[in-house]
Amino acid sequence: MGHMKKLIAGSALFVIGSILMVTPVSAHEGSVDITSGSMSCKGISIYQDGNYRVSGRCDGLVYPFETTYNKYVLWGKTTVGGQIVRIAEIDKGYFSGNIASAFDGMYISAETNGLVRKMSDKQIASGKVTPFSFDKSKVTTAPAVTTTATGTKTQTVSDTKVTATTSTAGAVVGKIVTSLLVVILVIVGLAIGASLLFRSRGSVSA
């Protein structure tokens, strides 16, 4: 029985340890944001094939930074050990490189050589990686009610216009018919009057 308890406890510790080892991989995938004054760099960090792939674009870098410091390099600070590791040279405002260790802090420095492995004291900006959020409960969608309400309102307006047009046409037709009836009645009255007049004259002549 004691052996079984030890086995279960060992398995639980193994599972927990595995989870803790895997967690840093997904925790440091995210958006890169490095800003200092008028200079700003935006990018993305994605874990792929055992490395973090970091790429993005910078705006506001001045070339050269100083007479001999005419290169810019992007660095990452590892979460374990706090080492500063080179990621990539920033070439014409763009950067793309790899870093094997999980990292959070990020830096940009001016260098005399874009392939240096140690950051100089010419640090010009710092930033961080903000982990992606995959919380579906925070996802918002455009309400369908708005579209439906708008459509219904438009349809109502259209129906109203059609009804008003129909009513107007009916009124015009009604007026025309009434006028025709009046004209017909007048003609019939004149015809009857003329007939009676001719009959009366005929009787007097006889």
Structure overview:
The protein has 206 residues and is of the alpha+beta class. The protein has 2 domains: 26-132; 142-206. 43% of the residues lie in helices and 32% in strands. It has 2 helices and 8 strands. The chain has helices spanning 2-27, 144-205, and strands spanning 30-36, 39-48, 51-59, 71-78, 84-90, 94-99, 103-111, 123-131. Strands 5-4-7-8-1-2-3-6 form an 8-stranded antiparallel beta sheet. A hairpin with a 2-residue loop joins strand 2 (39-48) and strand 3 (51-59). The longest helix has 62 residues, at 144-205. The radius of gyration is 44 Å and the shape is rod-shaped. The N and C termini lie far apart (149 Å). 15% of the residues are buried.
